[in-house]
Amino acid sequence: MTFLVVRLARALLTILIVVSFAFVVLRLSGDPALAILTNEAPPEALLAFRQSWGLDEPILVQYFNYLRTIFSGDLGMSMRDGRDAFTVVAERIPITLAITVPALMLSIMIGVTAGICAAFNPNSRLDRSIMLGAVAGFTVPSFVLGLLLVLVFSVWFGVLPSGGAQRWTNAILPIVTLGVGSAATLARYTRAALLEVLDRPYVRTASAKGVPWWQTILCHALPNAAIPMVTILGFLVGQLIAGAVVVENVFSWPGVGRLLVASVASRDLAVVQCLLFFVAATMIAANIATDILYSLFDPRLRASANRGGA
Q1: Residues 128 and 197 in one domain
Q2: How far apart are CA 277 and CA 66, in angstroms?
Q3: Which whole-number Å values give the CA distances from 80 to 39, 42, 145, 190, 260, in the listed order?
Q4: 140-to-79, 164, 181 alpha-carbon distances in Å
Q5: CA 33, CA 79: separation in Å to the nearest integer?
Q6: pLDDT at residue 309, rounded to an integer
Q7: Does the record bear Ribonucleoprotein in its keywords (predicted)?
Q8: Are 159 and 170 in contact, with CB atoms under 8 Å apart?
Q9: Alpha helices, DSSP H only, in the chain?
Q10: Exposure string for 197-221, b = 16+ CB within 10 A, e = fewer
């Protein structure tokens, strides 16, 4: 129980820091009235806009008003269309999940499989080839990979659309672009974790007894290599969220990432703050889920948590 309370307290503190930082940076980076109404608007219109949104008040007063609305469950209104900021963001979340969730599944399938193959063939040509591909997939920026995929599959071969979200085929290139970098990272960590486990006596004993290799992997190697692999999975969630901002703009995918860029450009303060709140909450949820998986894979951590809550 103590463990859960501490985690929740840290989560609330993290969210408070994120929204506070976003609040200050957004208000120091430009005037929303000029961004939305443009420089050609008359001074009276600009003044009325600032007064209607409370932008004419001191920044400290704006900050405490903002905290009060957040703690009351109100994330503000969009300055561009006057709708609730949470509604604006919520409309885009399923669209982003449509590419990030399949990308995560793709990265797990490719990354874990490639890491297993490399670990069971150390220093071989297969191992070197997989690690070379992993380094390339990890280092190539997502926007470069996305443009390369568009060039090959949309321009040269014409088999896949280059952007938009009209059909399910529009999601293929964004999913692959997001999944490749994550798969490369996961392959490297899977290989390193398995190489450490495969050298343990209980794995060598299982192999000496004639246990099939697939059973050795599933029953002996993977469960004991799970903790470092779970750690990187929590990191991959953040990597996918950050990558979605770039990939959605490359492929004109109308999700949360594209909304973030458009809202920052137009200084739509409430929407940007709501988006950052969503991102922070997602990262915190991923970290808590990682801690829960730790306790499932390692009984010692579960017993330690129970002693702490006793």
Answers
A1: yes
A2: 13
A3: 16, 18, 33, 46, 13
A4: 37, 23, 8
A5: 9
A6: 46
A7: no
A8: no
A9: 2-28, 32-37, 43-52, 59-71, 85-119, 125-139, 142-149, 172-198, 201-208, 213-216, 222-224, 226-250, 256-266, 269-297, 299-309
A10: bbeeeebeebeeeeeeeeebbeebb
Q: Which of 87, 75, 79, 97 is nearest to 22 (CA)?
A: 75
Rounded to an integer, what distance in angstroms lies between the CA atom of residue 292 and that of residue 7?
11
3-state class (DSSP) for residue 84: strand
Beta bridge partners of 84: 77
Segment 167-185 mean pLDDT: 90
Residue 77 pairs with which residues in a beta bridge? 84
Over the chain, what is the mean pLDDT?
A: 83
Q: How far apart are CA 272 and CA 23, in angstroms?
A: 9
* Whether 252 contacts 164, CB under 8 Å: yes
Whether 23 and 167 share a structural domain: no
Q: Are residues 57 and 200 in the same domain?
A: no
Task: Find tokens 């004109």 and name the residue.
Answer: 252
Residues 6 or more apart whose Cβ sits within 8 Å of residue 100? 178, 240, 241, 244
Please tell me the distance from the alpha carbon of residue 109 to that of residue 98, in angstroms, as a whole number. Answer: 17
**Closest to 92 measured CA to CA, from 243, 258, 247, 256:** 256
Residues constituting the chain? 310
In a domain, 80, yes or no: no
0.70 cut: is pTM over it? Answer: yes
- Residues spanned by the domain of 157: 89-266
When divided into structural domains, the chain yields a total of: 2
